Amino acid sequence: xxxxxxxxxxxxxxxxxxxxxxxxxxxxxxxxxxxxxxxxxxxxxxxxxxxxxxxxxxxxxxxxxxxxxxxxxxxxxxxxxxxxxxxxxxxxxxxxxxxxxxxxxxxxxx
Length: 110
What we know:
This is Nucleoside triphosphate pyrophosphohydrolase. Helices cover 57% and strands 0% of the residues. It has helices at 12-18, 30-49, 54-74, 79-93. The model has no long low-confidence stretch (mean pLDDT 97). Helix 2 (30-49) runs antiparallel to helix 3 (54-74). By secondary structure, it is mainly α. The protein has one domain (12-93).
């Protein structure tokens, strides 16, 4: 039997059961949960980075977004509140649309 030891989506045990298989699961406590959410974000980011097509990239971005929603909820904010923080930061600091790559900053005190 393969061993996974990782956070999975809520309906995965049902999917496994519908396939005629059994699985062993348990519910994580808060520290375990946020640790596993963070690990899963790294896993999904690596899959996004390795995506060969835009369709695959979008699938991985959707997985990352689901994890961001979960992490936001864990930290006590709604997705709407998180979006408000993002938007306010974009107003103050900009987004990444311009594709600006900073090489260096000259120190005035040389």
